What we know:
- The structure is a single chain.
- The protein has 363 residues and is an alpha+beta fold.
- It is elongated.
- β7 (262-273) and β8 (280-281) form a beta hairpin.
- The chain folds into 2 domains: 6-94; 113-347, BirA Bifunctional Protein, domain 2 (2-Layer Sandwich).
- The chain has 12 helices and 10 strands.
- α2 (26-37) packs antiparallel against α4 and α5 (113-127) packs across α11.
Amino acid sequence: MPSDNGQDLTGLQRKWLDAVAQASGVETLEQVRVEALGKKGEISGLMKTLGSMSPEARKDFGARLNLLKDEVAAAIETRKATLGDAALDARLARETLDLTLPARPEQEGRIHPISQTIDEIVAIFGEMGFSVAEGPDIEDDFHNFTALNIPADHPARQMQDTFYLPQRADGSQMVLRTHTSPVQIRTMQKAKPPIRVICPGRTYRVDSDMTHSPMFHQVEGLVIDETTHMGHLKGCLIDFVRAFFGIDDLPVRFRPSYFPFTEPSAEVDIGCDRSGGELKLGKGKDWMEILGSGMVHPNVLENCGIDSTKYQGFAFGMGIERIAMLKYGIPDLRTFYESDLRWLRHYGFVPLDMPSMVGGLTR
Ligand code: DAH
């Protein structure tokens, strides 16, 4: 219905709705919005003329103008959503990756045997209810030695050829951890028993030859509660080595030993056969040492604020390179760190074959 002041808005309505419909991108649409509804836009301009109209005319024209304004604003919003969706669709189409394509063999990476071995260890102990704990590579004297019942004048300090960092203002010296045992300490300081963790990680010693590297890897294990005893230690480690090496009847021997942080202590040997110049794991005349273990020394518990009259448990530690070399027949320790592509292709593992107890450890 034409208004009494003669302003017909249908032309304007068609003009702006067409402009909105024809906007081909978010930017052009924004331009349309500014020209119609912006401060100096055409529809906003008409709004400003309302003040000078008679009350009658203002009521009628104002109402229709408001309707037009709302209609154009709504059309802009709808168009914006459509354009946005279209832009997203276009981008998704442009950035599509066909994951079903086979990997290009020359570009396929490999999992390093150290990573693979750690994944296998985590899979086995994970199944037994252990979780993984970590600690820093740079340790203080307390965590690496003192708390582990290795006081300042203890010969074990010389046993482990330690990398020392430069002396600090207070005279103290940080070290590159010589074993993963300090993670035991950090775990017991933080958590209340029952505790059941393994701690894989890098370790460092001043040592370098065919069978020693200044940086190598260990995994530590720790179980603390009110009832765990030496029998549990034996059962746990026998199950582990048999699962890890995939030999159900692998002979395992516990030999009395000494570590400052355990009492009693035992080194663990597995059966093997060296006759014929070749090493074969399993039943045979020979033994091969693979890890250290024992019942956590009461002093160590007390050093971590754990009541040694109430809690007890066991710990163990082993070298990851060593068991990886035994399992996968890798003859030279130094090759682990050379990043030789041919070596990695030969000894590495397929990335998507994550070891698990149900899926199998290695394929
Ligand atoms: N920390 C020892 C080492 O580096 C290994 C070890 C032995 C860890 C016995 C333990 C343990 O937790 O109980 O040689």
